[in-house]
Model the fold of this input.
Amino acid sequence: MAHRHEVIVVGAGGAGLATALYAAREGADVAVVTKLYPTRSHTGAAQGGIGAALGNVEEDHWEWHMFDTVKGGDYLTDQDAAEVFAKEVIEAVLELEHMGLPFDRLPSGKIAQRRFGGHTKDWGKAPVHRAAHAADRTGHMILQTLYQQCVKHNITFYNEFHVTDVILEDGVAKGLVAYELATGELHLFQAKAIVIASGGFGRIYKVTSNAYTLTGDLQAILYRKGLPLEDMEFYQFHPTGLYPLGILLTEGARGEGGILRNALGERFMERYAPTIKDLAPRDMVARAMYLEVREGRGVGPKKDHVLLDLTHLPPEVIEKKLPDITEFSRIYLGVDPLKEPVPVMPTAHYAMGGIPTTLWGQVIRDENNTVVPGLYAAGEAACVSLHGANRLGTNSLGDLVVFGRRAGIHAARFAKDADYHELKADHLGESRERIERIKNSTGKEKVAVLRAELQQSMMDHASVFRTGELLTKQVDILKELMDRYRHISIDDKGEAYNTELVEALELGYLLEVSEALVHSALNRTESRGAHAREDYPERDDANWLKHTLAYKVADGKVTFRYKPVVLGRFEPKARTY
Amino acid sequence: MQVTLKILRFDPAKDQKPTWHTYQVEAEPWDRVLDLLHKVKWDQDGTLAFRRSCGHGICGSDAMLINGRNRLACKTLVKDLGNVITVEPIRGLPVEKDLIVDMEPFFAAYRAVKPYLINDEPPPARERLQSPEERERFDHGTKCILCASCTTSCPVFWVNGAYLGPAAIVQAHRFIFDSRDRGKRERFKALGSGSGVWRCRTAYNCTEACPREIPVTQLIEEVKRAILFDRF
Done:
């Protein structure tokens, strides 16, 4: 079947819904293509808050938020993006409130705010109350509120449609191909503007806070087509994943006063970040936890994790402000956070890198910011680059509203002056062939086996600490896995709800984004933000104050170009907390 | 431990009606039922179809009838079920394949109650003010993840698919009792109709089924009362 919409958004998480909503408000005919049902997307798992300098609890300024974001990103953040963001996120939070988002309230009736990692007052002097929140369900509330507004605006949804191809002809984006899960049918979508908002790819790692469905589909599709992926070496591990599952426990727990302790009961963050301690940025806390374990101060029979201690907090603070994480701990571990500390270990959480864009979400193809006409990206799938080498907590929710809104407005205005394009070729063929090849294969390789090997090896060789040796090993492993991937076969040959086929396609995407990540990580011979090379422990501004653009040449072969970092207000300095 | 997992399966391309399939699975007491379904799908039979996404009770994808009760597969642990576990699709919605049901009727009921803030007054430059008490008044409903556990446990919904069902009424409650909302009369049209709240017979199944511990029956009763008092 064929469909036409002026603006088509891929993904129905926070970024996708914000994009769709603002494009619809601009008067465009908008459709959302999503591989899940709306409200199933992983924005709903975000907990702690959305940072904005509202100043409701104490003095705050957007300039402080901008500074924290740039410093948190280890100066790889583009400062024009950080400035736009820190200013506009204030308006964005107020607009969410006007849409009905049920923020927690202060006695004054204003939106309540809490402390969060790396968010400070007066240029780093002390933690500041900046994260606007709704208990520990802020992402859930954002996702629900944005979907409610999409219902109000009658936006068209194609639910459980998996995009298999983005149609680019002569460098112009013209449409999409998508596989309908219910029927097995391929659909052709024509659009004047396409916005990629399909989220991240935490499932390349064994331990992750990400949903099973976060497999980097669209990043991989564009990368295969020769478009670059930016700064893929920067992948964030969230310090407090529930051990051993990796389920997220919000940084808001430490914002409310929670403390990380090692086997000796020490508050070890005092040694790593003397000023803001447990509220240091995530990359630093995750490394500190790894080091504590490595030096033998880990907890448990395997001495392989640490503890998040909330027992000194008033029970009503835990029950009222952190109800969901309290429940997770009780259900999945049988540990009551009111009475005993919770076992935690870093969990793969967020891709700072992704599809490179301008400040209006336009996808670019090179270091000269050459725009791909009609193609946009927003949210975790994109790289603006707001988060630089390490994202601050709460800035992802801010990112998806601010830059989703910008992409939606720009895409709608672009579509108004554009026509639908003639398609020169049959674009369903490639997708059909790829699907049939998997379904008809009699190969001996199994999706679940290859995926488990990928996830374990990425964990071992390309996670929190990296070396040239381990990354080189992983380059070879990925090449081998890609070869074996050609020989996978599946049991399900059916048309309706063939979720096994979907998992096979997703594994292909996981391998592609892993390749971009590992090659970029091997290439960057310095340590910055979340990219910690033990063989190059120092930040090297002379050689590496620049963004990586990774281009696929062939399986196992990647070339690089570099884009300068947009500097400005804040000169790069040593990063201490 | 060894678990016997019985799954009610249906393939529209082959089967006239659903049939039970039995699998032996090696499990840990702290495994989620979702882990067992994955073990079957990944190690034994790749054709098994079910929905899942977040894996920890937030996205609402994997509501199923597990040992006779509606629950989320990712939030139900083996240790709480024993070594014989039955899994069926949630009831009252058409089964598409295995544990996957057609969610469209469920979302149509959701849309019918106008599940969005209605307030045409121009918003202030800053946030609308709301006291913590006013915010608390509608807190329960904000937790809903639209998993359909409540609606598909409701005996009235089983026999009358036109009934809006508990989930849609919970969503309506969330706005009716929000001090910022002005749209309750618009919502009362659907809620007060023949397929609205008066169908509820307070069976309490919905309250027991809710994985978010929302007192669903209580909220339905509060909506009934709001409609009644609005008439005087």
About this structure: Chain B touches chain A through 57 residues (CB under 8 Å). Chain B has two domains: 2-101, 104-230. The mean pLDDT of chain B is 97.
